[in-house]
Amino acid sequence: MCGIVGYLGKKSVVPVILESLQTLEYRGYDSAGVAFLEQDCLNVYKASGKLNNLRSRLPVELFQKNGHSRHLGIGHTRWATHGAPNDETPHPHVSCDGNIALIHNGIVENFGELREELTRKGHIFHSKTDTECVVHLIEDLAKTETDFLKVLQQVTRRLVGAYALVIIDKRHPDKLYGVRNHAPLVVGIGDDELFLGSDVVALVEHTNQVSYLQNEEIVELSPEGVKVINFNGQPVEPLVEKISTGNLAVDKKGFKHFMLKEIYEQPDVLRNSLSMRLLSPEEPIQLFDEAADAKINEIERVYVVACGTSYNAGLVGRYFIEELVRIPVEVEAAGEFRYRNPLVDEKTLVIGISQSGETADTITALRQCVNKGAKVLAITNREDSTIARESHFVLPVRAGIEVSVCATKSFAAQVTVLYLLGIYLAERRQQSSPELLKSLKVGLQRLPVLVENVLHTSEEIQTLAKKYGNVRDLIFIARGINYPVALEGALKLKEISYIHAEGYSASELKHGPIAMLDPSIPVIAILTDGIVYDKMISNCQEAKARDAQVIAVNSGPMPEDVRDTFEDAVFIPQLEEMLSPILTVIPLQLLAYHIAEYLGKDVDQPRNLAKSVTVE
Ligand code: AGP
What we know:
Oligomer: single chain
Distance between the termini: 10 Å
Structural class: alpha/beta
Largest sheet: 8 strands, antiparallel
CATH topology of the largest domain: Glutamine Phosphoribosylpyrophosphate, subunit 1, domain 1
Bound molecules: 2-deoxy-2-amino glucitol-6-phosphate
CATH class of the largest domain: Alpha Beta
Number of strands: 25
CATH architecture of the largest domain: 4-Layer Sandwich
Strand order of the largest sheet: 3-2-4-1-10-9-11-15
C-alpha cells in the first residue's frame, strides 16, 4: 500500500506535501517522490528509501514559507508492487511531454498490454512499474481531448485493477485531479486550500472537513471548489463530513518507537473498546440497534476472514464464540477464503477483521460474501475504511491510530470486541449459564488493570531479549485458546526482528517439529491455569529432554517440582483462561520489540512491509 497526497492552496506546497507524507510513511517506505508546479515548470524529485532521503535531495529554498509561487503539488511514499525500489521506480511518474505528473496507490492489472500499445505509439518508459503506463495513457488520450475530466473518464475505461490516482498537469496550473477505484482517496477541504490523501491522517493537521470519494469517482479540485463526477461523467454531490481529529494524532509521546507506545496504550484501548458496550456485569451487552440485533440473531454459523494479526485475533474469537454460543465458527485467511467458493448464505455471519479496513484480500472476500447473501460484520479500527463502508454491520475497535506496522493494540482491541460479541450472542440465545457470562464480564472489566500489571514485566523481558536475541530460530507453543497467541508471538518476532519463528499447538510438537529442537532453538511456552496446564507442562518437559531452552509465560501458580523445566519464566496475573490471550500476548509483543530494538532493526517500519496491504 502506498501513501499519496495532493495539495492546492496558498501555502508553500513542498513542506505541506512532506509533512503529509510523513504521516503516511507507515503505509509504505521503499521510496518517495514529489512533483510541483512553479510558474509553468513541472518539478519532480524522487529518492529510493525513506522519506528523509527525498528530503535531503530537495533544495532548501523549497522550504521557504513566504514569497513562493509553488501552490500545486503531489507526493508519494511507495510500497513496491512492481519494480524493485530504485531511483527510477518512485512516483510521481511523468508523461513524455513533461506536462503531466501522476501518483498511484493500488495495482493496474492490465499494465502489460497498455505498455505494449503505448510503446508502439512512441511513448518512452523509464521504469517497469504498472503506474507509468497510466501517465502515458493520459498523455496519449489528452492529444485528442482537451477536457481533462473527459480524458480521465476515458482512462478509467482502459484500466483494470484497484487504483487511486492523483494527477497534476502544467496546462491546468490551478487544478488537482483524483480518481478512485477500489483504493482509498479522501478530499480535504481547508480555508482556501484543498487536499487529496490516501488516508485521512494526512489531512488532519490542516482540516477536519473531508469527503471520502467512492469507487468509480473522479474529482477536480480548483479555486472554484470540489467537482466530482462518476466514471460515466454524471455529476456527484460530494458528502462533506466533519471528522474528530483527536484520536488521529500521530505522535510518539516520548516513546522511542510507535510500537512501544502502542503496546503501552493497551489498557486505555481496552477501556475504549469496552466503554458504552459493557455497562455492568449484571446488564446484557449492547452492540447493535434493534434492526441489526434481529438480523444477527438469525444466523446459524460464523465465518471469520482476515489476514495476519487480525487472522490470529479471529482464531481467539473462534474458541470463545464456539464455547459460549455453540454455533460453528470457521476462521480462514482471506486470501485463501476468497478462492475456494465458500459455502455462505443468508444464515451465515461473515466477520471481516481488519485494523486498517483496507486490506485487499479481506475486502475482496467480504464483497464475495455480500454477493452470496451473507450478513457481513466488520470489526475494524477505521470506521472510515472501505471494509466499514461496505459491510452490513460495523463494530469499531476504537484503538486509535496504529502507526507501527507491527500490530499490537489493535490485536487486543479486536479480541476484546470478539469477546463482547460472543457474550452478546450467548445472552441473546440463552446459551451458557448467566453465572459464566457474568464472570466473564467481570473478567473483561478487570482486563485494563491486569494489562497494566503485565506491562511491568517489560524490563524482565528486555533481559530475555538480550539473552535470546541472537538466535536464528525460535518456537512458540501453546494449547487451546492460547494457540493463536503462539502464532501471534511468532508473527511479531518474524516481522520486526527478521528471526525465523514458528507458532505451534504444543500437541503438535511431537508429530514432527520436536525433531528440530536442540540448544540453539529456544521454545517459548504459554501456560495458563486451565484444563490443558498439565499437558503443557508435559510438552515443555519433552522439549527440555531434547536440550531445548524452554521459557515459560505462565499465568497462575507454577508447581515447585516443574520449575526446573524452564530456563526462564515470566509470570503474569491469573485470569479466566478464555480471557487470558489479552494478557499472554503482551510478553510476546514486548519480547519481539526488545529483540528487534536490541538488534538495531527498524522497529516501526520493518523492511518489505506496509501497514496495510491494499494489493492482493
Ligand atoms: C501484523 O503485525 C502485520 N502488520 C500484518 O499481519 C497485518 O495484521 C495484516 O496485514 C492485516 O492487516 P489489517 O488488520 O489492516 O487487515
